[in-house]
Amino acid sequence: MKMSYVYFLANKNNTVIYVGVTSDLLKRIYQHKTKAYKGFASKYNCDKLVYYETFTDINQAIAREKQIKAGNRTRKMRLIEADNPQWNDLSDGWLFYFD
């Protein structure tokens, strides 16, 4: 079964939150951390994974991403802080898979 993910990235000071969707979280985080693509996340240095949700259907993940993006920053912060109150990088240690 192919998993899909909605994820939040933050910059170093947690002043910017980026919301994305992917079917390969490990690869996508690697792309963000290496700034493989130019865009919002790379422009604002969002490379710290602070939150993610897992789905078994990409359509559900896309619908959830749209729902989250329609909300305000406070709602996004509440989601993050419920599971990750220190805003730690949940992907710490993941990059060794690509070395």
TrEMBL record:
Residues 2-78 form the GIY-YIG domain. It holds the Pfam family GIY-YIG. It comes from the Bacteria. InterPro entries: GIY-YIG_endonuc, GIY-YIG_endonuc_sf, UPF0213_domain. Transmembrane segments: none annotated. Belongs to the UPF0213 family. PANTHER family: BSL5627 PROTEIN (PTHR34477:SF5), UPF0213 PROTEIN YHBQ (PTHR34477). This is Excinuclease ABC subunit C. It comes from Hanstruepera neustonica.
